[in-house]
Amino acid sequence: DQQVKQNSPSLSVQEGRISILNCDYTNSMFDYFLWYKKYPAEGPTFLISISSIKDKNEDGRFTVFLNKSAKHLSLHIVPSQPGDSAVYFCAAKDSGTYKYIFGTGTRLKVLA
Amino acid sequence: NAGVTQTPKFRVLKTGQSMTLLCAQDMNHEYMYWYRQDPGMGLRLIHYSVGEGTTAKGEVPDGYNVSRLKKQNFLLGLESAAPSQTSVYFCASSLGQGGEAFFGQGTRLTVV
Given the DSSP bridges, would you call strands A106-111 and A10-14 parallel, antiparallel or unpaired? Predict the structure, then answer.
């Protein structure tokens, strides 16, 4: 039973446009949500996060939105750059066990 | 500051052989995790530890054992390797509570 779902395996966006990556979750015990970026042959690197008590967090070109009632979060990248091409993982932290549960990832390709 | 270091980076095992993957972190983090990454499956939690001397099962623990004898080290063991354990293994650590998990660079394991 997948608790964190990323239903889009891939996404292609033109350089300069907005990239929107989506993530859904099922567990109400998640209190912290994160986005990681992963390049081939490297470990995932932290990108941005949001606490469950907030609905938006912004860091430069990256904004994460959280809709608790829908159990949905999204990552917006504006403007998208070719260097943003990578696999993006959504993750959620369980407040009881401190486990980080990851989604299956979305491969973003930004076209120049 | 090395962060999270995994040893080895690559390994080829024959079915039935055993091995241990080592993870070391120098950030004084309480929490450590072992994940495996497989195509289309994202990052799946194998085992984790909330402190020295403690371990707990994650989503896919079967066929693996772990030990956390020292706070800075988290070992992942395969007692009798199987081809299904061919994967890329990532170790991570975190402070717990809020905050992100930091990942190592990964170990690519092939079981033939």
Answer: parallel
Q: How far is A102 from chain B (nearest CA, A)?
A: 6
Which residue do the tokens 């693996």 mark? B64
pLDDT tens, residue by residue, B61-111? 999 999 999 999 999 999 999 999 999 999 999 987 667 899 999 999 999
Contact by Cβ (8 Å): B46, B76:
yes
Say what the pLDDT of residue B98 is.
Answer: 67
Q: DSSP for B24-44, please give it.
A: EESS--SEEEEEEEETTTEEE
The shortest C-alpha distance from A110 to chain B (Å) reads 21
Q: Which of A98, A101, A107 to mutate to test the interface with B (most CBs of B within 10 A)?
A: A98
Rounded Cα distance, A48 and B68, in Å? 29
Q: Which range, of A62-66, A81-85, A93-97, averages the lowest pLDDT?
A: A93-97
Instruction: Retrieve residue B103's tokens.
Output: 């990942």
Query: Which residues in chain A are contacts of B58 at CB distance < 8 A?
Result: 99
Distance CA A87, CA A20 (A): 13
User: Per-residue DSSP letters for A39-73?
Assistant: -TTS--EEEEEEETT-SEEEETTEEEEEETTTTEE
Portion of chain B with pLDDT greater than 70, in percent: 97
Q: How far apart are CA A26 and CA A3, in angstroms?
A: 5
